[in-house]
Amino acid sequence: MNLHAPLVHPAKIASTLALWAYEMGTANGLDLMSALQQVADPRRPSNGTRHDFQEILVIAVCALLSDCDTVEDIAEWAAVKESWLRRFLVLQNGVPSQDTFLRLFRLIDPKQFEAAFRRWVGGIVTALGGQIAVDGKTLRGSADSEHGPVHMVSAFHTDLSLVLGQEKVSCLHWVGVLRKRWL
Question: For the CA atoms of the chain, what is the radius of gyration?
């Protein structure tokens, strides 16, 4: 028995969360494609890029929202969901391979991507309203002889049961500062 096998095969997930996110975004002018335009394409066109940069990112986000954890899962999900994806994307050269996803993830600026993703999610959450809880925790057993314990702050949308952000901080008095940043 494979203990690391997923409980649900990623390709069989109905993509309802990704579809909901798309519909919410277009209804409020906060579509994912526009948010991802802020992320710079790290590839050189001379290397024969076959796939649109923003389409690759949209596919990856939709796959991750559909519970895919690896580039293999993302590529498999995209292949199975190609007809669904074509409702929203051009996909001139079909869906990217797992190697394409992996190469892009190695090159992309994670801070740029995080900022774009937070902007998009923040717009959707703001449009929905509801309560946002900010909480700080100190991770037990994380201290060693050289460093103190790890402190984490999280922002959680209570109505959607959605973690909006989580960040390591130097100490828990930063909760107020991060609340202003996230909210």
Answer: 18
Burial class (CB in 10 A: 0-12, 13-18, 19+), 32: buried
Question: Which secondary structure element, helix H or strand E, spans residue 16, and what is its range?
Answer: helix 16-27
Token pair 């190697």: residue: 99
According to the model, what pLDDT value does residue 91 have? 93
CA 25 to chain CA mean position, Å: 15
Token pair 């596919």 in the structure block, residue: 59
182 sits in the region (left: phi over 0; alpha: psi -120 to 50; else beta) called alpha
Total length of the chain: 183
Q: What pTM did the predictor assign?
A: 0.66
Residues of the chain with pLDDT under 70: 1-30, 127-128, 171-183
CA–CA gap between residue 37 and residue 72 (Å, rounded): 25
Instruction: State the pLDDT at residue 160.
Output: 74
